[in-house]
Amino acid sequence: MHASDAVSGPAQHRALASSTVAFTVCFAVWTIFAIIGIQIRKDLNLSETQFGLLVGTPILTGSLLRVVLGIWTDRFGGRLMFVATMLAASAATFLLTFANTYPQMLLAALGVGIAGSSFAVGVAYVSRWYPPERQGMALGIFGAGNVGSAVTKFFAPLVMVAFGWQTVAEIWASVLAFTAILLFVTTKDDPVLVARRRSGEKPKGSWLELEPLKNVQVWRFSLYYFFSFGAFVALALWLPQYLTKVYGVDIRLAGVIAACFSVPASLFRAYGGHLADVYGARRVMYWTFLVSVAATFVLSYPATDYVIHGVNGPISFHAEMGVVGFTVAIFVLGFFMAMGKAAVFKHIPVYYPQHVGSVGGLVGMIGGLGGFILPIVFGVLLDLTGLWTSCFMLLFLIALGSLTWMHLAIRQMEREATGAALEKLPAFPELQGLEPAVVKKPSGAVLTDWRPEDKGFWQQTGRKIARRNLWLSIPSLLLSFAIWQVWSVVVAKLPLVGFQYTTDQLFWLAALPGLSGATLRIFYSFMVPVFGGRLWTTLTTWSLIIPALGIGYAVQNPETPYVVMLMLALLCGFGGGNFASSVANISFFFPKAEKGNALALNSGLGNLGVSVVQFAVPLVITAGIFGSFGGDAAMTQTPAGPVPLWLQNAGFFFVPFIVLSALGNWFGMNDIASARASFSEQAVIFQRKHNWLMCWLYTGTFGSFIGYSAGFPLLSKTLFPDVNALQYAFLGPLVGALSRSATGWLADRFGGARVTFWAFVLMMIGVSGVLYFIGIRQEPHAFAGFFAAFLLLFLASGVGNASTFQMVPVIMAKEMGRLMPNATPEVRRVQAEKESAAITGFISAMAAFGAFFVPKSYGSSIALTGGPEAALWAFLIFYITCLAITWGFYCRRGGLLHDIEHAPKATAAASR
């Protein structure tokens, strides 16, 4: 029984409330140099490095003392140690007003730092009032005392401007002393200390308290706190100066803006503790590092002026984050740092119930040292590089390294333990080998028992989970296709807003996303078994924000260099790459009997993103839907007169949907524990003949679909300049996407090879029709015939997309009998699943090059011959080869799939 179980609720709440208030005041004193240090720097004419040392010195003291005070708290009780710590810090802060030289300031700053060591005392004191299942929330509330940093930033500038920095120190010292007395009067000794006194038990010696610190895993665990807390403290100290120097704001406004970082990084720590109690600390830590990587990357970019020496003279381009954008980004960073701080300390009283003071003191010390070291390094980096954003560059590297290291360690443990063993793993790999005091509730995010081919399991449990993952995957894939193909609409509008590009340059912009997306698919197709579908889908969805925002900013300035536009076009390939990992992930969830339809729904409805972008973008660019935040409109000339155009909305429109989808993926999707494999294990597919045959066939179906989607708007505008083709362009991808999602059942019922064969027949008819109507394009109704022929191509390619995907798992299931004759049926099934997923992703990568080659072929054909006919004839010949391969290897009597597809349904299902 935990000692806190016998404690009354009012006593618990009083101890928590008083401790939180006391820690808030301590933290306000601990960070006092963030404000008064600016005036001291002016008075003493300090360099950047000297200023960083002055600001960081209190952090050093507060960090180093945490281990000692944590041990003393375990021995003598938190109430006594809390009061003594606060009174000592109060005296040192008051004596600060008598310092006149830099060495005296440093000496006084050492004493002020005692206030920061109160954290180790408070963690040990508060944790003893609550049972383990409530400690995450309690410590989160206590840790919210970090908001004291914001209190200093709000009020200290006002007092300093009116009365001087000495008055700030005097008032803060007085409030700290008064709070110490109030804490002593309103609280009692913790229940563990009381029980020990009653039993006559002597406290452990200091060396025994240090025993857990011998474990290297504890030190590794401490490094997470180095970023989540240490970087928070460093930025809390650094931001006022950063804002006054970079943006030229008044010190009072700088304090308010800096508080926009400190407040969420403090108050939401309590919410982070609640999330750690409910969802587990691992999930919270993932979000901390993922968002921190994104935020610090954005904040790292310095104000830059580009000057490109073009043919017609210099071209200028300016990139800079304004103070509003900076405030928003720093708020988001602070919020997720708060989540991380709570998640780290959730585990200390659980895994070390008898050593909370010493272990919590060590973890707090490492974090506090981050608050001391980082401001100094910030100053050194600024002196060396001259870049104010160098501080965020450093934090980006720390966050990225922490995320990578943490995830690889967790994945290594999970690969070595599936099933029941996986449920017993601790939430952090650093704690492997330690026995937790309370068994952690296993995370529902990892499915340790997944048997989709077991009908009973599938009906009772599997179908519901699989469908949830499918319906979360579809919006992400739809947005991916939308970002991938957004240039197909944007390029047609660029000349209207002042961009002077040739036809060939415009075709390059339309084609490059296809090239980069196809290339990324090669890598993405192997990532789900390595990283897990849930994490990888979340990451890849977040990545869509980069090109979406980039396009929104770039198209507002017609002087944006062409090379920048090319880079943004390449970045849109993030969306194209997502398809490979998406289909690989979904393929693991469904049994073979439903896999074709599931992949058809995922891919087909995801393909709707092409139609969505071609339908929605022409509408959203006609209105200022984001107000002043979205930028000004460009005036375009039309027969009816000048019309405003917000082309930037083509990118900005998708940003909120990307955020919502990414959040949904993280909180709603699952990983399958058995669906793990290294790249080398998946690389066996390169030895499979059918992998390369299916690459050829899927290029004929999907490569055509995505290529025609990318090239149709510009091709139509080039061949039929008098027709507003953009208002019809979305119909082709719409037909292709719907035909894919609606015809997956055909392949499941009649066989993928047979359906694929007839799909290629229709595509040959369609491309022949396009050639015919191009030849008579001067006729009045030529565009209608041209458009109808393309709709047939889209329809047939959609049907073929679904049927080719259905072929892959059937082919590999049959091939495993030949490749692994001595293996058990279950081993063959698992291997077939892994290879099918890898092949599905890889063939989608190869086929995606159609998004580059089809529009580029149009452009090259027009440039060389004056028309697109040569490209279309090449497409027709290619479809003939696809038809021959489908018949020769799979459909004919004696082909690999003939017996399966022509057998009675029950027999075919059994053979699979």
TrEMBL record:
The chain crosses the membrane at residues 21-40, 52-73, 80-99, 105-126, 171-187, 221-239, 251-272, 284-303, 323-344, 356-381, 387-406, 470-487, 507-524, 536-556, 562-584, 605-626, 646-669, 690-710, 725-743, 755-776, 782-808, 837-858, 870-890. Gene3D superfamilies: MFS general substrate transporter like domains. This is MFS transporter. PANTHER family: HIGH-AFFINITY NITRATE TRANSPORTER 2.3. GO terms for cellular component: plasma membrane. PROSITE patterns: MFS (PS50850). GO terms for molecular function: nitrate transmembrane transporter activity; secondary active transmembrane transporter activity. It comes from Rhizobium straminoryzae. Residues 14-414 form the Major facilitator superfamily (MFS) profile domain. It is found in: Cell inner membrane. Keywords: Cell inner membrane, Cell membrane, Membrane, Nitrate assimilation, Transmembrane, Transmembrane helix, Transport.
